[in-house]
Write a structure and sequence with these properties.
By secondary structure, the chain is α/β, with parallel strands linked by helices. It has 3 domains: about 80 residues, Winged helix-like DNA-binding domain superfamily/Winged helix DNA-binding domain (Arc Repressor Mutant, subunit A, Orthogonal Bundle), CATH 1.10.10; about 120 residues, 3-Layer(aba) Sandwich (D-Maltodextrin-Binding Protein, domain 2); about 110 residues, Periplasmic binding protein-like II (D-Maltodextrin-Binding Protein, domain 2), CATH 3.40.190.10. It has 11 helices and 11 strands. Strands 3, 4, 5, 6, 9, 10 and 11 form a 7-stranded mixed β-sheet that branches. Helix 1 packs across helix 2, helix 1 crosses helix 3 and helix 1 crosses helix 4. GO terms for molecular function: DNA-binding transcription factor activity; transcription cis-regulatory region binding. Keywords: DNA-binding, Transcription, Transcription regulation. Belongs to the LysR transcriptional regulatory family. This is LysR family transcriptional regulator.
Amino acid sequence: MQRTHEVGMELAWLEDFLEIVATRNFSTAAAARNISQPAFSRRIKSLETWVGADLVDRSTYPIHLTSAGIMFVPRCQEMVRDMYRLRTDCRNVAGASSQLLTFAALHTLAIYFFPSWISAPDMPNAPVRSSMHTADFLECVEHLSSGKCDFAIIYDHPDGPPVLETGPFESLQIGKDRLILVSGTDPTGKPHFSIDAPEGTKIPYLSYSWSDGYLGKLISLIQSRWRHPLNLSTVYQSSLAEGLKQMAVAGRGIAWLPQICVQKSIAQGELIQIGGQQMSLEIEIRIFRRVGTRNRDGEAFWKYLAQKSELQRGRSIIDSTLTMR
């Protein structure tokens, strides 16, 4: 006996469709939604499968809507508005005491930064009720873009990929970290490996896997500062900084790691920073949110963070002025 599998419609598909209505271009719409064009095209096709009719005429440029697509637009806009209004109403009825703030964060930040940050005594309505999804950079972006979380906490640097610089996002700096180059140590406390090794000597390298291209690009920027190309030989890859750290502690190679996750190992003598400041890079810790999809608790939380950020910026300006004098 055969079963008929009904395709379940997702809110993200409706938002994708409205983006293509606005831009009339698949690549532009995909960029605005912060997903790849193939993934965006698949989601539009999934929506058409659910509706049972083509909504977009792909044979024209810029693209046009079919008759079914034109009819679908106002109802699609109404459904999206109603869904977000319903979510807000349900959350407000549930009351602040039952509201969870949902976060997506890089694994390193979820482990080493978030617990102390969210538990600060000056946080509003402390302790803040929250849930966390840990992911790599692109998955954090996807979660925020598709409305699966209220906030995303990630690293940011002016020379990193500008994934969140376009689209309906806003951000605040909530901390700083530094990418540093480390090596495991021998029984005397000296590093197992040195980047000043004789020319031609291969240095075992612990690298981030291709899925975490964000930190990889920043590491390439650091390497370009060195006086000669580093003869790195990749012996291990992982998307998790914690995994790279443990391999470095075991003496398997060198790795660029966020200082926040290795500072304890450095203090205990398991790891040592090599290459000095030239082989390091300061990075910001930023919290992002979508513009326009807000709830009462999330808005209050963001307002508190914005006020705190403004106060800290004011203190920095005063300190800089006093230093100049």
